Automatic annotation (TrEMBL):
Transmembrane regions: 44-61, 82-107, 113-130, 142-160, 180-209
Lineage per the UniProt record: Bacteria, Pseudomonadati, Pseudomonadota, Betaproteobacteria, Burkholderiales
A GO cellular component annotation in the UniProt record: plasma membrane
Gene Ontology biological process terms, A to Z: cysteine export across plasma membrane
Keyword Nuclease tagged: no
UniProt key word Membrane: yes
Residue runs in coiled coils: none
One Pfam family of this chain: LysE
Protein name: Transporter, LysE family
Organism: Castellaniella defragrans (strain DSM 12143 / CCUG 39792 / 65Phen) (Alcaligenes defragrans)
Membrane topology qualifier: Multi-pass membrane protein
GO molecular function, one term: amino acid transmembrane transporter activity
């Protein structure tokens, strides 16, 4: 259903799933298409929010690593890792929305190359987690190394297969085809706002089980379990190749 109302020199055209608004001088011809600003409807934003919630809170490389980091280093020391995940993903969605995704259409093999590069890096991370030395009793977490920082977590998103899948799906499915630059920022910012508490939940769950990891044998078992889960998270993404 399309309702068109004219008031002075402005025309409002309401049409699902977006709202078009343009203004033109009195007596001028039809407005040019490039002057149209498309605003996402509330229904579209609600559907996108549900997609962002499900994709952010389900198991994956980021959440598995945050669970392990929260358990070993605690929630506070894992904060830079959490912010790096959300910040890096925000920049990824923003870049794809601004045209970076066109590279995948120009070079079809690029996505597969990045997916396999990310898989190789995740295998390396799984090996590092599984082979990490456990802290001796009374040593606390000093022997466990350092948590992943903001820049490292942000850079990891660009080789994370699940992050690429989520970002491309967000832009291609929920971005208006003739959207304004502001829509790209809205989609990226909304995804980041939903993603941060989701990844924080995983880090928080990890911090809750810190007490049971004081025993070195339990810590080794936990590290190996996290490594297996990290490798298992690759299956649904590499299965798409």
């Amino acid at each position: 259903m399309c309702i068109e109302k004219t008031h002075d020199d402005c025309v409002f055209n309401t049409q699902a799933p977006s709202v078009k608004m343009f203004c033109r001088p009195v007596g001028a011809g039809p407005p040019a298409e490039q002057n149209v600003i498309m605003l996402p409807s509330s229904d579209l934003l609600l559907a996108f929010s549900l997609f962002a919630l499900i994709s952010s809170i389900t198991p994956g490389p980021n959440n598995t690593m945050l669970l392990a980091s929260g358990a070993v280093f605690g929630f506070r020391r894992t904060l830079p890792h959490m912010l790096g995940v959300t910040g890096g993903f925000f920049l990824m969605v923003l870049s794809i929305g601004l045209g970076f995704g066109a590279l995948f259409r120009t070079f079809p093999g690029l996505h597969g190359w990045l997916r396999h590069l990310g898989a190789a890096y995740l295998v390396y991370l799984a090996w590092r987690i599984a082979s990490a030395s456990s802290a001796a009793p009374g040593e606390g977490r000093r022997g466990a190394g350092a948590p992943l920082g903001f820049l490292g977590a942000a850079a990891f998103q660009w080789v994370n297969p699940k992050a690429w899948t989520m970002a491309v799906a967000a832009v291609s499915t929920y971005m208006p085809q003739q959207g304004h630059l502001a829509n790209v920022f809205v989609i990226a910012a909304l995804f980041a706002a939903i993603n941060l508490p989701c990844v924080g939940l995983w880090a928080g769950c990890g911090s809750l089980i810190r007490r049971v990891l004081d025993d070195p044998s339990r810590q080794r078992g936990f590290n190996r379990a996290m490594a297996v889960l990290l490798l298992a998270s690759l299956y649904p993404m590499l299965g798409q190749a």
